[in-house]
Write a sequence for this structure.
């Protein structure tokens, strides 16, 4: 394999859990930079694409790469055999369910008029899956990489704090959460600090009061 | 043009659309591969995306580099089997397998090993907002040019120039159309504009058969 290119089989990439679906983390695995590219895999009856809308300006193209899917887009449902392309404008609710075992939907997305900037939700899904199965070193390495890539973005440090809280590492969790609070100039994180159940293991710790104060 | 095809540059919201890639326009290129214009069909502007099927020669991905556009590209096999050549290496890939070419300088191509093969290509230049590639307009205009439908070829190339003003390849292609259509003055003006924008077109013009009717004109770039 050369440095200049990579061969990948979608069904050989380990899926990550994300909002009830199985993500094939293509962008993270390849390091592809021009657009958001990922895939979803499910057996018949399983959720392929978590129901969601994209922000204004975000265009997404879904391609049924294998099997058969049932798409629901903006309240309309359509059968989509392999080879179907589905374009969904922003701010329209979309979801898909597999109609055959081993169905794979590939997706590409990006914002019109803007350079693609990976938010890291897909990498975070891998870190989350690592936490669920106890591969803590691997998950922590991804989290550290996300923080290194976006050192000024409060949500990445906040998520790392949640991750460490759930992993039972209160010291590391507080370190991330203090950094998140420091970066959150607009106070966007406040409701999460108050209500997020991921942080429940920290709430009786005196450091949590300090953090909120 | 497929009856449901939309122009890519409309600012109007594009309705939700489903289409199977077999139903997309099939534009057979002189190199033998068949371009299935996905981006253009949906009016996608955020990234480059197209599909390809094989023509009579079996070619499915044109032999090329991405040095001009500096794109990173993914080629995903959607159906059948394809033999990709990337640099000096060969790989046979089936449905659900992809090759990601990170290095724009790497020469890449694909040959269909089964008649039903189809490939999806997704790409763009890292760190920059996507710009629609000039070649899409050249590809779209090509069949009209070869069939002598000069007005339609002109319309598509002008559409490209509205999106990519001053694009040397599009000015050059338009010069070809005008030369073939017998509009010598226009052809010479456009060809000189193309050469001013990119000196490489001076060399291409010397051997391009499309310019036979204007090559002896003193205004022809030497």
């Amino acid at each position: 394999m050369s440095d200049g290119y990579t061969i990948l089989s979608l069904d050989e990439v380990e899926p990550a859990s994300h909002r009830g679906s199985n993500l094939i983390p293509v962008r993270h695995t390849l390091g592809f930079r021009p657009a958001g590219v990922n895939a979803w895999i499910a057996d018949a009856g399983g959720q392929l694409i978590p129901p969601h809308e994209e922000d204004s300006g975000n265009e997404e193209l879904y391609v049924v790469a294998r099997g058969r899917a049932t798409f629901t887009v903006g309240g309309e449902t359509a059968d989509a055999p392999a080879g179907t392309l589905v374009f969904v404008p922003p701010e329209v609710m979309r979801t898909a369910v597999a109609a055959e075992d081993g169905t794979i939907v590939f997706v590409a997305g990006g914002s019109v008029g803007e350079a693609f900037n990976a938010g890291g939700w897909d990498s975070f899904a891998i870190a989350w899956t690592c936490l669920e199965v106890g591969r803590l070193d691997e998950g922590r390495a991804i989290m550290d990489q996300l923080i290194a890539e976006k050192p000024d973005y409060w949500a990445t440090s906040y998520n790392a704090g949640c991750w460490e809280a759930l992993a039972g590492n209160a010291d590391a969790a507080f370190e991330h959460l203090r950094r998140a609070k420091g970066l959150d100039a607009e106070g966007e994180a406040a409701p999460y600090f108050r209500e997020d159940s991921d942080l429940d293991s920290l709430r009786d710790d005196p450091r949590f009061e300090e953090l909120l104060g | 043009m497929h009856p449901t095809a939309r122009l890519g540059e409309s600012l109007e919201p594009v309705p939700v659309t489903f289409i199977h890639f077999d139903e997309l326009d099939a534009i057979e290129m002189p190199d033998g591969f068949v371009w299935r214009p996905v981006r253009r069909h949906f009016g996608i502007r955020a990234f480059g995306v197209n599909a390809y099927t094989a023509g009579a020669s079996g070619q499915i991905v044109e032999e090329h580099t991405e040095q001009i556009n500096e794109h990173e590209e993914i080629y995903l096999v959607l159906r059948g089997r394809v033999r990709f050549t990337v640099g000096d290496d060969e790989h046979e890939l089936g449905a659900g397998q992809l090759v990601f070419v990170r290095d724009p300088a790497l020469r890449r191509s694909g040959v269909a090993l089964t008649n039903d093969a189809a490939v999806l290509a997704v790409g763009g230049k890292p760190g920059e907002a996507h710009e629609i590639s000039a070649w899409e307009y050249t590809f779209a205009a090509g069949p009209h040019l070869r069939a002598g439908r000069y007005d339609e070829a002109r319309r598509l190339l002008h559409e490209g120039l509205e999106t990519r003003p001053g694009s040397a390849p599009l000015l050059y292609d338009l010069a070809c159309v005008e030369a073939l259509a017998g509009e010598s003055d226009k052809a010479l003006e456009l060809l000189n504009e193309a050469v001013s924008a990119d000196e490489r077109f001076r060399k291409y013009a010397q051997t391009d058969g499309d310019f036979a009717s204007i090559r002896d004109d003193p205004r022809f770039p030497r």
Summary: Chain A has a mean pLDDT of 95. Chain A touches chain B through 52 residues (CB under 8 Å).
